[in-house]
Amino acid sequence: MAYTTASGGRIMQDEVATSFSNDVLHLIVLPTEQCNFRCIYCYEDFSIGTMKPPVVTGLKRLIAERVPTLRRLHIAWFGGEPLLALNIVKDVSSLAKRLAAENRRVVYTGEMTTNAFRLDQATAENLYHLGIRQYQITLDGPQELHDRTRVRRNGAGSFQQIWANLIGMRASSLEFKVCLRIHVTPSNFPFMSEFLSRIRQEFLVDPRFTLLLKAVGRWGGPNDDKIEVFEGAERQLVLDQLTEQAVQGLNHDVIYQPGEVCYASRPNSLLVRASGEIGKCTVALSDPANNIGRLLEDGSLELRNEALQPWLRGWRGDPAALGCPLVGLPRESGEPVLLQIGARPATAGLTDAENSA
Q1: All structural domains of the chain
Q2: What is the mean pLDDT of residues 86-99?
Q3: Which of 39, 72, 113, 339 has the highest count of CB atoms within 10 angstroms of its CB?
Q4: What is the pLDDT, as a whole number, of residue 334?
Q5: Cα-trace Rg, the chain
Q6: Least confident segment among 3-12, 98-107, 225-234, 255-264
Q7: pTM of the predicted model, to two decimals?
């Protein structure tokens, strides 16, 4: 049976089979929910700290129990800022790599959404050898503008260190993939053409780098009423214009194309929070509807089916929800979640083998 999304794109039978397969496991793991940045549009509340040992133990036991039954294991590291809990990332990734080597049927891949402030060349090389070879890294335009919005917790800027780390990655011979996520706002738009030219010259000529242009939205953070955003049709016009400028002169595909099915719509994709709570969506972290269960120390999952099912409704007569099940998510009160469509700020699972959104 084939499905058709609201956008008209067809989802083939293999997409359905992959999303419901018991031998595919996609874990989005938050080893810490603290961050060294305080981006002005951030929606996280930093109320949870680093993953405690019982949760780490439960995560490792879950992976150890599932690997012999899998053909694909994908671990996407998210946060907070996951590199603040590098020891946990290394510990769990090391186990996953070893178990996959012992069970040759399993293809294990890893990725990370990071601000890259701590992603120096030595760290990138270490993570590469642990299977983490895909990254999403954000810039908010040239340094002067980036440093106004992607502010470190101590109030200092972050551009120079991130740029230096990206240059270090480019200089390496490692076969990684980096999606450069460039945020666009009314404030930085006049400077974007020149900045994207610099991005093209420095990174996009290297096929290991791709580009994702994203308009900043009001994503539920405390500064929503203070930030300027592009809205409606203007948003897409701006992104289309900048995309055309970004690819000029390049003869390979540099624009990241997300899939039509969000990871949160997939039954075999789970979000493991630092607290051990299990969710589906990296955007709605503080939403009670995003708490569908808990990971126990013995590696078992206590999932509440009534909380899980609304996230999967796209497969049962509401195909528009496949692209973002958070939009219109039914509430216990009967009221749906309202979210700016197309404003999903995170793409955990960005470039995994199943082509997550």
Answers
A1: 3-322 (3.20.20.70)
A2: 98
A3: 113
A4: 47
A5: 20
A6: 3-12
A7: 0.90
